[in-house]
Structures are given as structure tokens and as C-alpha cells.
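A further point concerns the way the authors explain their paired sequence and structure data. Nothing conveys this as quickly as seeing an actual entry. An entry of this sort, consisting of the sequence and the corresponding C-alpha cells, reads as follows:
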Amino acid sequence: MSCLRTLIGFLALPAITAAFEDSVADYAPAVNIPCPDLSTTEFVREWTASNQTLNPNEEEYVQTRLNSTIAQAWNDWLSDGSQLGYNTTSFQGHFPKIGLAIPGGGLRAAQFGAAALSGIDARNESAKSAGTGGLLQVSSYLTGLSGGSWITGSLFFNNFPTLGELVFGNGNNLTGWLLDLAFATPDGDDLFSEYNQYFYGSILWSVMAKADTGIDTSITDPWARMISFHFLNQTNRQNFFTNDTAHGAGQLWSNIPNIPAWQQYETPFPILVTDSRPQGLNATTALTLDPTVYEITPFEFASYDPDLSAGVNLTFAGTPMTNKKPVNATACVTGFDQAGFMMGTSASLFNQILDFAHNTIQDFSQSDGNGLLYVLSRQLSEVRTRADDVANWPNPFNGVKTSTYDDSNSTWLSLIDGASNGENIPLGPLFVKARALDVIVPLDGSADDSNNWPNGTDMLITAERLSSILEASHQQMPPLPQNAQAFIDTGVRERATFFGCDPTQNPPEFPLVIYIPNTPPFNGDDPAANTGTFQLQYTPKQQQVLFDQIHNNTISGFVPNTNDADPNFGKCLQCAAVDRARYKISPVINRSDFCQTCFTQYCYDPTHPPSLSEVPNRKQIFVDPDPQGLVNFLSENKNKLIGGVVGLVIFIALLIGGLVWWKKRRDKKFVAHYHQVSALHEEEELNMKTYSQYIRPESYEIPAHRGSLYTDS
């Protein structure tokens, strides 16, 4: 396989960017690829906070959509505007630029994002009937973070289907997310069951293939592969435990422009967000607001933070670079931007929950934690790692902005979950001044309180970062409630709210923010959407009820002091989405009477804030819609679980009786097909070292064949 990858390096550049999607080993990047001409190729571009530039490919895509697909989508959504009291003919060429943001929060966030997007998707009949369907089609950007990155990636690598089909399947080419199969233990709690061993074998085969190229791995890599099984497009229930497909290995984030929906300009421009732990920090707590925040687009890995303000061509991410050029003109790396690894990087939260001393992963269920630790221990016994609890990226910005960029002298970056600094909604990229967004839509599925509901904390933290660290480079947040308690007391966390409705300047001094939080059902039903961040398995009924509640909340708005849906909410959402167009016309068009009525109901006025009493009878405590789901699962798999225990006892007896034979097998290499994996390393499986017993990465030596590509600093 590595020879094949090297040969590909001698082909034209378009060929080396093509995805290999035949084997789980295609998770390995291609190394030692001859680079494009170093004298004429821009690998890393720079800008300043006061003179920002966008990637030309991003700019072309977004502008082309605005002038074609989005222009038509506005006309489809608003028609002639008469229902709002406008004549939309006057808005032609002036429609606002809109961005959507999907937060972190594991599978809850991924499902919340999907259900909320379905509520603003013109392809969904109930959303279209309510008038909310259409906002997705007129949006230019879609950002995702952690669990929000999973729904973002899944949308694109499944060719932008409807959200219900994406999550639940369509009985044809889409099989859904298969969330009833647990991420880390898809065949149940028995780690040594035949099918779990097949699964772990596939995961480890991918990771070992990457490590064999000389690129350091970590727990983020098996995590990325687990994400791929559910959210990319090559896995179904029939092949889940086989290697009949690559299970998303070889699918590259930089290949998103090749999907048909992108080529038809049907999709927003996707951006993932990840945080960084500065080299040498080794913090296991939440970050401050200071460390650099990065974004991943189909074209760049970049940061618009003033301290860096630079981006690298994503195709060559993974290439050792210094001073904006590859270190070795014959040793470029391609294929580092595996889609699963991009999503895994954005969701790499292990630096805060991986307990080295006690060999535990906090917050996950015991089963999921055991599964992740088992794979990590097997990984450590086979391959070299650098930092086990982060996503290891070769630093493309080595030697860049030496006076301001903290990691300028580092050859590696330690990237972690995009919410590690407290910004759980990926709003930063949408406030970048060069992107010039008029309307920003945070879909807030955060779990800020003890009942797993948002309380505005993430919005407030982003507002603080915007007004301090990012003041020169980003637009500012409009006025918000002053703290999380004020978000609660005003009731704005319980329903859709518009912030920044009445700017005092033209152009407006801030974008209009349409805040759509995860809320208890407006009609007083028992809530099922406030599940835990670390829940990695859902029954089909749990999925469906959660999805339906979020979708219904998204399309319904609220009627003050009642538990009724607002029949005008769809039109009020249209009023908010199009409002900034008024400021682009000279003279400014007055807001229509109908839209002013909507703004009176939905806008946050800091001088006359609303009250929690306007949203009565919302239940806060989660009620499981399928409490027998787990019991039924255990009952249905009772024989399998018993068999696993019996098999383990027999296994131990065989191990003791055949110690000499097992020692001979210990040195045997990992075989090419993982159906044989369960017969390998059984001594290690039954007598595993705990994670904390392994030598720490700092003491590992780089094999000689790897040192030519990557240094250890």
C-alpha cells in the first residue's frame, strides 16, 4: 500500500488529491510525495487583522452561490414579499449573507443540529408549510464543532440529503447513523466478543497504517475511525463488522468540492472549529480564551486570530513545513485530511477526561470508557504516539509570525475539542470581518446546566473573546443578557430570540443574531432532547422522539404566556433573515408593520427585557421515551453476553495451558484482514497493562525511517 502511495506522488497534482476508498488502511496519508514547485506554489498564505483576505476558492464559491442558487432560494422562500409587507423586488442584489452554527455536545448535538436544520430546510414539508423551511437554502456558511462537526461532515459526505434521511436512512442508499450500535462497544459490553474484536481490529488496522508512515497517532485516531463508521457513507448494518468497505477511510475533507451537491452550488460553505493546547502546556483543564483557535475548510487549515492570521493549503496539511515551505521538496504529505480525522480533531476532548493515573475516561459510560481504553492500550502496544490525549498535527506555521504566534517554534500542534475554551458554539468563523455576514444563526444545543439545557454561557464567552482578543479581526456580538442567570430570567433560552434588531449605525455595527436554542417542548410535553453529552448509544425510539421534539420546536416559535405554537413564526423568521437588506438600500427602507410586530415579540431589547413568565409550563427534567430500550437490548443479547463470559473463561484456561505457543505468537505482525485480529495479541488482551503503565510519549524514540520525515520537537 505504501509503495502504491509513493507511486502516486509522481502523477499530476489532481491525482494525488484523489481519495483512496478501497481499504480501511487508506486512513494512512501518502508520504514522500514530490511537492509542487516550491518557488511558485503558495503553501501557506498570511494576512493581518486589519487587512484580511479570504481563500480565493472560498470567495469564489460563496459569491457564485449568492448570485445564483441563493438569489433563487430567497425568491422561493419569500415569494414577492407581500406576506411580510415588502416588495422583494427592491431587495434583489441586496439580500443578507447568512451563516449557521451547530454546537458541540456529542451525539445530542449532532442530532439536535440535524433536527434543527430539518426545521429550516425547504425540502421538509412541515418546515416549508410553517414558513421556516428556506433559511437553510439561503445560508452561505455552516460551521460545526465537536458533535456539530459530525452532522456537518455527514451532510457533505452523503451528498447533502434531507435531514430525516441522513439520520434514519431511506431504505435505499442511506442507512442512517446506526446510533443503536454503541460507538466504542458496538457488539455489547464484552470487549472480547467476536464482533467487537472484528471492529477493534478494523480500527487498529487503520491507525497502524497511519503510524507506519511516521505520523504520530493518539486516541483521537481510533475515535476518528469510530465516528466514520456512523457518519460517513460506506457503513451499513450488514457490513458494520466486516472489511467489505473502507468505512470512510480515504475520504478527504479537501475532496468536498467533488461532491455533486457542491458542484451544483446547493450547499453552504462548511467550516469546522478546533482549539489548541500550546506546546509544553499539557493542561488537563479547560483552556482560557488566549490559545489560538483554528478552522478547517475544504481549502484551508487556518486561523483568523490576530496572533496568527494565516492558512495552509489543506491538501498539504501533514507536510513538515518551516517558513511557509515544505522542509523537503520530495517529501510532501497528502491525505492527512481524512474526513473522520477532521471531525475527530474538532471533537478531541480527551485532554480533559483521560485520567492517566487511574486508567479511566471520565463521564463516558463504563462500557464506552472500557472500549476506548482497550483500543488505546492496544494502540500503544503497537505504535509510537506523541501526545495521547490530543490530535497530533505537524505544524504548518512553524516560523510564521514569530513575535505573536505562541507555537511558531513548534514542529507539532496539539489540537483539541473546539469547545475547550468555553465557546461551545462555533461562532468565531462567522464573525470574521472579511466574511461580512449580516445574519448569524446559532443553533444552541449546549448542555450548560444540570438538566443539559443551554443557558447562554457559550454566547457570552464568545462575546467576551470577540470584544477582547478578536476586536481587530472580527465583528462584535450584539447586546446580550449580561450573564447566564439573565438568559434564564428573561426566558430567551426557552424560545427563539433575535439579538441586535435595531443597530444605530449604517452599515450596522453588528450582525443580527437569530438564536435558536434547544428547549423543552413548547407545548409542555416531557422533554427527551436534553440527553447527556457522553451518551454514545440511542435506541431508534429515543432518536425519533428527540428528533421530532427539536424539529417541532424549531418550526413553532412561541406565543407569550401560552403553550401554543405561533402560526406566524415562519414569517417572523423571514422578517429577521431579510431585515439587514433594508440597510443596503439607499434610502433605507422602513421596516414593515408586520415585521415590526414580529420584532416586538421576538427581539431582545436590553432596555425592556422579556420575562421567563412569558414561556410557562416548560418541563426541565429529562424523561426517557424508551426506558425499556436498554433492558430489551440486554434481554435480546443475553445469550451472546453469557457466551462471551464463558468464552473468556475458556480463553484464560487455554492461555495458561499453552503459554509457550502464545509467546511465539506474540511477535507475529498484524495480519492484513481483521477477521484474524481476535486471534492475535490475546495475551495482551487478557493481561493488559493499564494505560498509566505505558511509557509516556516523551521517552519514546523515533524509528530511524521516520526521523527523516518528522522531528521530535
